[in-house]
Write a structure and sequence with these properties.
alpha+beta, Beta Polymerase, domain 2, six-stranded mixed β-sheet, 27% strand, translation regulation, cytoplasm, Ribosomal silencing factor RsfS, Iojap/RsfS/C7orf30
Length: 122
């Protein structure tokens, strides 16, 4: 499998896992054309509570581990689950509680990225 296909498979599993636990406002930010960006791709989504944010993070880790045999390089923010980051190196998943996402305005921060909005399935 090519690097591109591997990354696409990872992105698809991450989005599926977020949707499995009703994560909202899913967006994929392609940062590959941005100089000095910390990753090639960000996946950003929102949950309504720390319980849901933690469940989304757990779902992402489990689905990617079970179906692609990959583990995140780094996970942080699980203590208070206001903003959990799951880092797969080329793809970094940011799971926010809604008000935290609004506060940090990530979309504005990475405004130069190519952004794909994923429609909710429910």
């Amino acid at each position: 499998m090519s690097k591109t296909a591997e990354k696409q498979a990872l992105l698809d599993k991450i989005v599926d896992a977020i949707q499995d636990v009703k994560g909202e406002d899913i967006m994929i930010f392609d940062l590959s054309k941005i100089e000095n960006s910390v990753a090639e791709t960000f996946v950003i989504c929102s949950g309504n509570s720390n319980t849901q944010v933690a469940a989304i993070a757990g779902s992402v880790e489990k689905k990617v581990r079970n179906e692609l045999k990959e583990r995140p390089w780094h996970v942080e923010g699980t203590e208070n689950a206001m903003w959990v980051l799951v880092d797969y190196v080329s793809v970094v998943v940011h799971i926010f509680q809604k008000q935290i996402r609004e506060y940090y305005d990530i979309e504005e921060l990475w405004g130069d990225a190519v952004i794909t909005k994923i429609e909710n399935e429910f």
